[in-house]
Amino acid sequence: MLEPSHNDELPTIPGKRYFTIGEVSELCAVKPHVLRYWEQEFPQLNPVKRRGNRRYYQRQDVLMIRQIRSLLYEQGFTIGGARQRMSGDEARDDTTQYKQLIRQMITELEDVLHVLKN
Prior knowledge:
mainly alpha, Multidrug-efflux Transporter Regulator, Chain: A, Domain 2, two-stranded antiparallel sheet, 5 helices, 61% helix
């Protein structure tokens, strides 16, 4: 598992529509029970639930989890502080999510360029 300070080293988010809790756990370096707990603490985090209460996260959920992870593990926020930051600074949160999305797209485009060169 990655050290909390290495958020930039998190794996690239694949171009899928839905992710299982196990996949999100690996993509965000957070254990599944922590993800379930965060769902209770952060109302914005609301994955789709299907048969048997199986959770399916979308890309924006994964980005939000990475942002929550950053607030808690890197910036030292408490759960309450992170919750307040997530709900109070939505414009800033959107900017952070867009930056993460742009970084992700750049990585994917560089991969495509590398494949095309070979």
